[in-house]
Amino acid sequence: MRAAPTVLVVEDDRVMRESLVWLLKTAELNAEAYGLPGELLERYDPDQPGCLVLDLQLSEMTGLELWQRLREKGCRHPFIIISGQGNICTAVQSMHEGAVDFIEKPFDHQRLLSRVRQAIQHDANNRRRRVSHLETQTRIDSLTPREREVMELVVEGNLTKQIAKRLEISGKTVDVHRSHVTKKMHVQSVAQLVRLMIEHSLGNTQ
Fold first, then answer.
1. For the chain, which ranges sit under pLDDT 70?
2. Residues 135-153, buried b or exposed e (16+ Cβ, 10 A)?
3. Full-model pTM
């Protein structure tokens, strides 16, 4: 059973922390709250879907420093920074680091909930893309070296005769390899294969 998305909150002010958890749970969102960055670092699980809500000014480190530490542990969660002492420079830095938003206290509840839902959806989309990317790579790895050569030439737009000439094999042999590629890559046409490989290539750059 797939784990439900959870909002991981790190806020050292107890009243604010409890208020955030209450708000999230009232909106029917799962939430876990931590008063210290070290508590989350000890228990952090990158496979848990959801997002992060990090206070900028924490006792052990800043929210951005915590984000950097989490990234070292494989974190890809979208995150939101909240702060009562924000400034333009810090806000810009947060956005450059990839924050979904930088929200100053006291904040509008609906804005925070909207950003949290956006972050959760973003995380779900990213996880689906990563799974799809791994599945495609597994299919590619199942190809023989020759099948992979043929596939690459097909994706480049070469016809059977052109591939046969390039690889110095018969057209019939090319067709056999193409048939194997189609089955192993789970596609029905060249167009589908090209689309699949383009999406896979884009996934390698993210």
1. 1-2, 86, 204-206
2. ebeebbeebeebbebbbeb
3. 0.79
